[in-house]
Write a structure and sequence with these properties.
Elements (H helix, E strand, L loop, with lengths): L11 H14 L12 E4 L2 E4 L3 H6 L9
Antiparallel strand pairs: 1-2
Amino acid sequence: MWGYCGEEFIGEEEGQGMIRRAKTLGVWGTQLKLHRKLSRSARGTVLRIPLDIEKEMKLKGSENV
């Protein structure tokens, strides 16, 4: 955290690590679908993830985020 304003800055080493991880997942350099759909269910609000991202990240639907 930076001072009292609450902003967080990512250092060069951590940023490069994030890029390496994104490349490993196969999502680096691909266009992201920036629009997401929220919907309601009996247990709350649901954020839908596009199928292509779900497949690339091998999501099962039981992960904690």
